[in-house]
DNA sequence: GTCTATATAAGGATAGAC
DNA sequence: GTCTATCCTTATATAGAC
């Protein structure tokens, strides 16, 4: 098998992956049939199995590709020794937001359909997410120790950073009214302001 | 049919609803079979149909029950004429958080599985959510007009308020480390502080 | 590598005895 | 109201011709 044959196969496989990811997002993993994927790729369902091993493999590819990209980005921030923790958090937050703006299919499938992974991938995937959240919590604690993030329970702050981006799913349906830049800056502003060490919030 | 027979039927139906909602959350709507529900209720699958019309009816009940509860609570806040918009938003946010803490099964099913509703319920459900988000945006704009919420794009702020609570899903798996009260106050603090009209955030 | 045909399992829902 | 038995559809995946 020469190189061009290999490349063609990879292109085909990548097309299947792209179609499948979109359908998994639109209809859900369990409600998406191999026939649905095959229809949009333009072949019969049986032909898909010349390129992939199973439907589950497509889900694995999506989930671990995203997990890898997110983990690598976080590692970059962790190693920016000259940066403040708050700056690292803002960079991570902006990475999350841009992923949800530019790669919505993949992040939604990884977020919502990941629970349908089979073992041992399910366990590995959930452990990886747990580690990821711990690492973000660690940056938050560093920021508090250095005094440029206000003292508070770090766990809810981490959850907020992890979850804020989810609203972007709604934004995609009405993209015209608010620009991607305004959306990103607006979200970042709420969160980062909420972390500043300024004792100015008085309950009524 | 006397009153006690009616009540017994409703109790049974309510039990089926409760079991189904939990399974829909744990396994997803499509991956939950009538046989799964029946097993936990303690009857055969066929017997369920003496109490409910279809599996889809259980999903409808969950989604619209939640939509109704949320809409009514928002209406209460809208009619608190003496309150500041920021106070209304905090009350709404706390209602969301408590729902995600105390009724996680139902809110998760309504949020994640609602897309599997059949027509015309799907359209009605999505329109209702759209209206709900518009109403929250309206309160935010009121707060800006009155000067007790900082001027900014209202749309990302609304998304943040809608989405912050989603992290609570993770909290339920490790309930011991942070109390429900600390979680609620921690989440509220980040968001509400991020809305205050204090020009103290300078980008580096 | 793609096709047709099919194996095998599971799904929601119904019929009819009790 | 609950049961057993079953209808009918759909699902993933495989076999084997071309």
Protein model, in words:
In chain A, 71% of the residues lie in helices and 0% in strands. The mean pLDDT of chain A is 93. Chain A is an all-alpha fold. Chain A has helices at residues 3-27, 34-41, 45-48, 55-78, 85-102, 104-113, 121-145, 154-163, 168-171, 180-195. Chain A is built from ten helices and no strands. The longest helix of chain A has 25 residues, at 3-27. Chain A folds into two domains: 1-52, Homeodomain-like (Arc Repressor Mutant, subunit A), CATH 1.10.10; 55-195, Tetracycline Repressor, domain 2 (Orthogonal Bundle). The N and C termini of chain A lie far apart (73 Å). The first copy, chain A, is elongated, with a radius of gyration of 20 Å. At the A-B interface, helix 8, helix 9 and helix 10 of A face helix 8, helix 9 and helix 10 of B. Chain B binds a DNA duplex (18 and 18 nucleotides) through helix 3.
């Amino acid at each position: 098998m020469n190189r061009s044959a290999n490349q063609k196969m990879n292109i085909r496989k990548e097309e299947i992956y792209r179609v499948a990811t979109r359908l998994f997002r639109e209809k859900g993993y369990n409600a998406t049939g191999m026939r649905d994927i095959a229809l949009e790729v333009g072949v019969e369902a049986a032909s898909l199995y010349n390129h992939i091993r199973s439907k589950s493999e497509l889900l694995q590819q999506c989930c671990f590709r995203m997990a890898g990209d997110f983990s690598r980005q976080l590692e970059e921030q962790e190693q920016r020794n000259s940066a403040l923790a708050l700056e690292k958090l803002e960079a991570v937050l902006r990475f999350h937001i841009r992923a949800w703006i530019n790669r919505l299919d993949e992040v939604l499938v990884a977020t919502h359909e990941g629970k349908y992974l089979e073992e041992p991938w399910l366990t590995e995937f959930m452990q990886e997410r747990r580690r990821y959240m711990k690492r973000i919590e660690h940056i938050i604690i560093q920021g508090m120790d250095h005094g440029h993030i206000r003292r508070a329970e770090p766990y809810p702050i981490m959850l907020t950073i992890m979850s804020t981006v989810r609203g972007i799913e709604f934004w995609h349906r009405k993209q015209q009214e608010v620009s991607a830049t305004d959306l990103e800056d607006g979200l970042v502003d709420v969160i980062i302001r909420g972390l500043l060490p300024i004792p100015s919030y008085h309950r009524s």
